[in-house]
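Example record for the data management plan.
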Amino acid sequence: MRREFVILFAVAALIFGGFVGTVVILNSTLYSAGGFVRGYLDALARQDAPGALELAGPSVAGDASTALLSREAMSELSEIRLISDTAEADGAHTVVYSYLAGGVPGESTFSVRATGSLWGLFDRWAFAASPLGVIELTVQHASEFTANGIDLVTPAQNSVAPYLVFTPGLYEFEHGSQYLTAEPVRVAAVTPNSAVSAVLNIQANAAFTEHVSEEVDDFLDACVTQTVLQPTGCPFGQTINNRVITTPEWSMVEYPNVGLVPGNNNSEWRMPEASASAHLLVDVRSLFDGTVTSFDEDVPFGVSATVTFLPGNELLIVVG
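Corresponding structural encoding:
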């Protein structure tokens, strides 16, 4: 009986020792501060937005848009590797991970704090500072844009608009439409609980410039059909002090080189004044001695235009 008791005691001791060892191992890995952060990063790698948000906890950026906290807007995250897990004097842990975010190498530092235990055995953790970041995005000269391929509309064109984002993550902002374009802007959000600024500068594309140029050229072509010295509503004309004795004939010599810049309001673009030249041919009689000469000269002038976007992406072009 004594021998059986010893055997049972030894077996129980082995089981208990194995259990204790398992608890110790789990608390140093899966249930460690580094393991908790790894769980958050693994959720990002799976593009599990709800899971990542649950681990992230509340964010203090209450006025920021949550439009980018979705699976569709998440970037790829891979090659996640723990660099360090340091216990601080106040009980918090500083955890550093490296990774590839959207194929770009990065490194982020997280602060976590123990919040109790699970079943009295395993440590429980929470972020001491939110792992979410903020991108303060300014979309210039238009409202629509894309972020990592999803279509969005800024609430404040030409002004800073904050967007909550998962950290780490790589976010690419773009714009491409019938008449406007922008160079893509890539923003790496690598520092949790911090903000990074970006500007998406939307400008007129080649099709927009060509369309306005054609309209301006057509307008000037119509102007030169008027057989008067001062064509009505046109940016050129000629004053002659002597008597005109033939019908004035205008023709275009040099059309303006059109460029477009943003206007004074969100739907307006401007063509700054550009140089052009028309030719005038008319015979005149001198009031002094009655001689007849021909005015056969190029007449330089400047031309500008205002372009307004109308509903349906129609353009109202007013040439001045």
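Summary line stored alongside the record: The first helix runs from residue 2 to 28.
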